[in-house]
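README: folding subset

This subset contains proteins for which both the sequence and a predicted structure token string are available. Records are stored as plain text. Below is the entry for Extracellular solute-binding protein (546 residues), shown exactly as it appears on disk.
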Amino acid sequence: MRNLKKLTAVSLILVMMAAALSGCGSSKSTNKTNNNTGNDAQATQAADNSGNSDGVTPATSYKMFMRSQYADWIKELKWYDVAEEKTGIHVEYVEGPEEIADTYTEVDERIASGTLPDAAMVNLAQAKVYGEQGAFVDLAPYIKKYAPNLQAYIDKNPDYKSYVSSDNGAIYGLVKESPIFADLIGYRADQFKEAGIDPASVKTVDDFTAAMETLKKFYGAKDKNYYPLSGRDSALRFAAWFGAASYADANGSGGVYYNHEKDGSFNIKADGAYTWIETMKKWYDEGLINPLWVAGTNSEGDWESQTLEGQASIFYDYYNRAEWFMQNVGADGNKNYDMQVLNFLQDASGKTIPVTSSILYQNGCVTAVNSARNESTIAAILKFIDYFYSEEGITLANWGVEGESFTTNDSTKMFIADYTTEESKAAGEKRWSFLSDRFTVCKPVDQTAFYSWNTKLIADAANSNFKTENFLDRPTLIYSTSQEEELTNLVASVFEGESAGLTAFITGSKELNKDNWNAFIKEMDNMGLSQIEKIQAEAYTNTFSK
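--- output ---
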């Protein structure tokens, strides 16, 4: 499977992205149509897959279990309504929990209780393990019958087939394509200016720390609840800045790489890992980072409020969050509010520090079909998904409807729907939106369209930072079903143990010294870290030696 290495080489995607972003002065960027797919397998024309002489007539609706937030987003999409009209199939979503981890847990519970609807959003390990136990349909023979466009995609992408297939060759779950991107450093330019900080001077980690110290002295004197750096979810997201991201390559594996190729990627055995935690402890002790974020109790809403209200000036988060803050400061908010994006940091030699990025095929948000359903329902599910692998469906999901959301001029696509206008609409209101990093339906991603659907702020930041040499190698590994099952169980406990231990060092509840650090590594190895690394290394070898 040497061709799978192509998934780690983002050069082609970045070339297309550069074409989309260069000279992007507004949301109306121009893009060549010969680059209008994220993977070159989408040359298949839309086909009539309403059934054939060997199959049954597909049903006209089905139910799918999904994370509630994703279902809410789908209800707002204008292009999704068009897809249902085009296919003649309506999807009724059974809403799960708000958090994605809780959603997967409920899948386990629903399988055990027999309450899983026709289809479900699962992770790949669940699809393979439960599939081999008989809970999910082997979709491979039905794809041949009812999904010619999807079948053409699989035939043209053997790496995809290898990734989704179980040891027995069955396909129990379908994986979507994902955009390739990394997190960006957002900062309040107005606060930097007021505190006398030149953003261009923030180049290294030491510069970053010095800027936070200046901000803390300036704003912290007025507000005891001011912390320069804040965020949501885990604060353990700076490991790559110290050369301590998890990895898998020809030399082996370090840290939890499985399901943490981008987020939560750290390797406590890396040479720079101790310095990483030592630096974060300094941030914590000096009040430079929000302690609630370090403790894991700072919600997304808390972080947003802190950043909008001036109690935080810097974040390291999703690529488009800077624009979100600019949109949500409000008409009556601070008129001087100005969120901008820093360039990636550099090492002492002036070389940009490479960071973790997303990968094309991820093991979350997988579509699986309940094996208790009849062929008519299976056909309906595949017919609906297959539409998005046709040229018509790819264009609809990535660009919308010509004349309404985009136009074509001299073989060039250009958005005419305004990003800011559409994305700032109230929750629940219908909109044009092409944020393909969100899960809507299993489909390919047009990387060019994805980056074109942005404001100048994000387009410029992506164009400046998202370069091949600035991304760490993130190979997509193929695991056997038994490896998937073992890793799922091990990672759940080991990653939690690592996170708790690292947090204890940062907060000072456990003294940070070399002896305690080495004991911590040994403890994690005994818990299963070394076994995780062994499986990841074996998967890398098996993936790229064939």
